[in-house]
Amino acid sequence: MINRRDFMKDASLLTAVLAAGGGVSLGAEEQKFVSQRPAPNKRTFKSSAVENTIDEVKSFIKDPELSWMFENCYPNTLDTTTDFEMIDGKPDTFIITGDIDAMWLRDSTCQVWPYMPLIKKDKHLKTMIKGLVNRQVKCVLLDPYANAFYKDMDKPSHWASDRPAPKAGVHERKWEIDSLCYVVRLANEYYQITGDTSCFDREWDKAMRLIVKTFKTEQRKDHSTPYRFSRETSRMTDAPVFDGTGRPINPVGLICSMFRPSDDATVLPFLIPSNLFAVQSLRQLADLYRTKLDDEKFAAECSSLADEVEQAVMKWGTREHLHFGKIYAYEADGYGNHLFMDDANVPSLISLSYLGYHKSSDSIYRRTREYLLSSYNPWYFEGSAAEGYGSPHTGKESIWPMGIILRALTSNNSEEIALCLRMLKNTHAGTGFMHESFNKDNPKDFSREWFAWANTLFGELVIETYKKYPRILKKKTV
User: Fold this and answer.
1) What is the model's pTM?
2) What PANTHER family has UniProt attached to this entry (predicted)?
């Protein structure tokens, strides 16, 4: 697996590698924005459609720094994290998250999502995505409660001391509703774009039924769960209380999630954005089984569960806010207690329109978004470098580029989108890449230098801006 950090450590080597075969002297501006991509023969996957998109969009962007950042970030998943091969006659794709040598179900779907519109133009890219659908099925069948996996089944887990210890092939076993939702999201989108049903084989069917069974189990209607999780750690957010089962809940039909998409433990077990994501995933499954797989019984089971969860969210996951009216809570417990906040990771409350669950004009979403971007959200930070979403995962002074990106992707205001692009341009600390987080007053103080999800998500934002608000990118300085 190619490690981008090897290229980043030695700037002179990087310049030499990327300029190999050239010999052309670069101007001051060109020297400042030398591509940070690995040399073509060092990239882990290549797509002609992606390269054509880079050329098209990059040449349109007038701001040289923003253009450079796009070229670095958009292909980062393909350049550095993709392991594709044929196994037993089927495509198989394993995608690591970046500087952690493991594949998250969530991250891997998000990492390839910006490439999905191109798969009808590039058969090689299409096959790679199909391989990821197949790999995710293997992961679910291995352990539906796990969030991250290894390709090498003999690799010892970094979290081997967790209890219960992860199975062979599992990196860690944090139960997050969204992990399973992303498996459905990828398979459904692949089908919707290509019309190819060949990936819906017996193993895929088993995985989908296991996903629904797991959702039902974690409704905990009898107050029981087979799930346990404990970790030796000094971080409160690294494990749920009460032997990993979380705080008490009133079983009102919502699904318990012991962890957030940040991999932090939930405070109240009913994580509202993830429950709404599950509603969407269940309806996608219902449609596939009803219209393509000829199984009305399972389709009806998915639809019924989706309706039950959605009704419970509206009753138990919303509340009148003192300043904003009826909005979504981030977490709830079914007893009437709520936690009002949001986290930069997706699914988040602000991402509900990005995911397609809400339209940006829907009243409850619009009010919730207004709250989330205000000082009443305890995890929305304003600093001298930028303002935006943080996360308990990185402390009380760090902003996530991902949060700024999602703000832009859920906005219909060109000025707000331009503001977000400006903040992202001003906080990459000269690296040309997105990071997990940065100090609100000092962007050079950042976490995770190689975070492929954030990189490709930034690429998606630039492409969406190019399509919908091209005048923003026509300015010499964003």
Assistant:
1) 0.93
2) MEIOTICALLY UP-REGULATED GENE 157 PROTEIN
